[in-house]
Amino acid sequence: MAGLAAGLLQGACPLFAAEAPRIVSLDYGLSSTLLSLGVVPAGIADLADWHIWVVEPEMPPSVVDLGAAMQVNFEVLAALKPDLILTTPYLEQLKPKLETVATVLQLDIYAPDGGDILPKAIAATRKLGAAIGRTAEAEDFIGKAEATFDACSARVNRAGPRPLALVNLLDARHARIYSSPGLYDNVLARIGIPNAWTDKSNYWGFDTIGIEDLSKVRDPEARLIIFEPVPPDALPTLAESPLWNTLPFSRPGGYAILPGALMFGMVNEAVRFAGLVTDYLETVS
């Protein structure tokens, strides 16, 4: 079974070229990629929060929730009788047990060895397509994504590429801020938007900062993007904060709240993010 998975990763002949495989996915990005390749997974991890973090594409109602990724319900997983389980290095500790259920295909996108995420996500999409007999679909999907990035780049150029600082608020005092080598940062570079936060991040593409650290952003043209979901008490508390009110971002028009786009995703999520920030820039040009 381990040899079979290695063969899939090396681009061997697809295991499921002539049949519809039953696939489960323990990663949101891989799950959304399956949908874009025309395959509905039998089950995925963390389905209950899909509408919060991924949003689109919509997950069909037939898909079974396997529970939290780190605490997969193995009874439910075994009952689904999957042919293939998709996973990532984040769940490496589960791999031996997963291999008792079905062939495991581990695709490395976010991994300690680092590297820019968008090209790794594109490469993983091709590997997945080859493994399940969907090579043509994978190339078509990637081609459409590249065309979308090109279109966003042209729109950004017309609107004016204003620098953006990108955060998720954890509470009124702390945020995750996104930079190189993460997916958000890669997409900004791809479509021609400067990242206002120039410090490098961890291999997931973010750092956790205090709100006061936003004062490091000196560019007067920079705008702050806060992605949903936002803790309900965060913005009211910030509005009363003397610290927040000293920041340029606190002024009218200094920040915007945009719908969520999965920061730890793959190509689908990169496309969604590109559209959201491009739409925003067109409103402030």
What do these coordinates show?
With 285 residues, the chain is of the alpha/beta class. Helices cover 38% and strands 14% of the residues. It has a 5-stranded parallel beta sheet. Helix 6 runs antiparallel to helix 7 and helix 8 crosses helix 11 (267-284). 38% of the residues are buried. Mean pLDDT is 93; it is low at 1-7.
Sequence-ordered SSE layout with sheet pairings:
Layout: H1 2-9, E1 23-25, H2 28-36, E2 43-44, H3 50-53, E3 64-65, H4 74-80, E4 84-87, H5 95-98, E5 103-106, H6 117-131, H7 135-159, E6 164-169, E7 174-178, H8 183-191, E8 206-210, E9 223-227, H9 234-239, H10 242-245, E10 255-258, H11 267-284
Parallel strand pairs: 1-2, 1-4, 2-3, 4-5, 6-9, 9-10
Antiparallel strand pairs: 6-7, 7-8
Helix pairs in contact: 6-7, 7-11, 8-11
Q: What does this entry show, briefly?
A:
The chain has 285 residues and is of the alpha/beta class.
Q: Which tags fit this structure?
A:
285 residues, alpha/beta, five-stranded mixed beta sheet, 11 helices, 10 strands
User: How many β strands by DSSP?
Assistant: 10
Mean pLDDT: 93
- End-to-end CA span: 55 Å
Return the string of H and E elements: HEHEHEHEHEHHEEHEEHHEH
Which strands sit side by side, in order, in the main sheet? 3-2-1-4-5
Largest sheet: 5 strands, parallel
- The helix tally amounts to 11
Specify Rg, calculated over alpha carbons: 20 Å
Structural class, please? alpha/beta
Q: Report the portion of residues in β strands.
A: 5-15%
Q: Helix coverage percent of residues? A: 25-40%
Q: What does the overall shape look like?
A: globular
State the low-pLDDT regions, or none. 1-7
